[in-house]
Amino acid sequence: TWWANAGRGFRQRGRLRASFLAMTTTLSTTPKVVANCGIPSWKVGGRCGKPILLSLPYWCSFVRMNVLLIGSGGREHAMAWKLAQSSFLTSLFVAPGNAGTSTLATNLKLDVSNHDAVSRALKKYDIDMVIVGPEAPLVDGLVDHLLDCGKHPDLVVIGPRKEGAQLEGSKAFAKAFMQRHNIPTAAYGAFEASQVGEAVAFLSQMKAPYVIKADGLAAGKGVIITEDLDEAASTVRDMLSGSSFGEAGERVVIEQFMDGIECSMFVVTDGTADIKPAKTCFCAQDSIEKTCCD
Predict the structure, then answer these.
(1) What number of other Cβ atoms are within 10 A of residue 6's Cβ?
(2) How many CA atoms does the CB half-sphere of 125 hold within 13 Å?
(3) Quick one: which of 6, 14, 110, 277 has the most CB atoms within 10 Å?
(4) Rg of the chain on CA atoms, in Å
């Protein structure tokens, strides 16, 4: 049952509240498709029993959401810039944000590693959707907390749970996942702090250049490539001792070097369908990065 107030629409907990006439109508749960245009529409009861056909864009025109974007980097600035253009947006908040996001949204002085504090902010600012940008909060289980705490039953969260975030949070996990599912990847070995000798021995079996990666999150700085075997061995020892990258380097991945163009693909999906991906291509020779859609 949809309630209506003449001439205006309003939002409540992410559900569409539409205004059409001073009446109550019942919306069919099965959409019809308007002939020749493919737009989902619904037939609702009207005055004098005459049906009214309303298309999805009509109903969506009344959606208004408060959105909280988690993060403080350039990535979040770009996301905030685009979110701010949405006609579905009521208010945009960024936590903790940066100087760039402050021109587009309201920055919140919030410790995103404090999950309870984030949860309280959702209540305070009546947030309908949370988008988690950085890897660290995802690996830390922020999405799991917000979805499982029972305090936000209607909340929409964009971002993977802690288990899925391991693909980004642990290179050893990602490599094992790719091997297990027959996804092509460079030959590698993974070693922990108690396996320094084995790691150095593995290096001696590899051909230069040597690729050593800190297993955990290291803000994009956790990869060392060197032509010198002694330097590679020293790097492995420093990482596994915790002196180079702290906890991120307590396990290392030693990989076969691969020459060529690096291509990252980003796909948005609801679990059953996806949109055309964007690709970021990085050429190591000239250090040029570009985004393409082909």
Answers:
(1) 9
(2) 24
(3) 110
(4) 25
Closest by CA position to 213, among listed 172, 164, 168, 263: 172
* The model's pTM: 0.70
pLDDT digits (tens, 9 = 90+) for 45-100: 444 444 444 444 444 445 679 999 999 999 999 999 999 999 999 999 999 999 99
Report d(CA 292, CA 129) in Å as an integer. 29
β-pairing, 261-266 vs 278-283, is antiparallel
d(CA 290, CA 56): 36
40 prior amide bond cis, ω within 30: no
Q: CB of 268 within 8 A of CB of 275?
A: yes
Residues 6 or more apart whose CB falls under 8 angstroms from that of 230 comprise none
Cα–Cα distances in angstroms (integers) from residue 54 to residues 11, 14, 87, in the given order: 18, 19, 19
Q: How far apart are CA 170 and CA 249, in angstroms?
A: 10
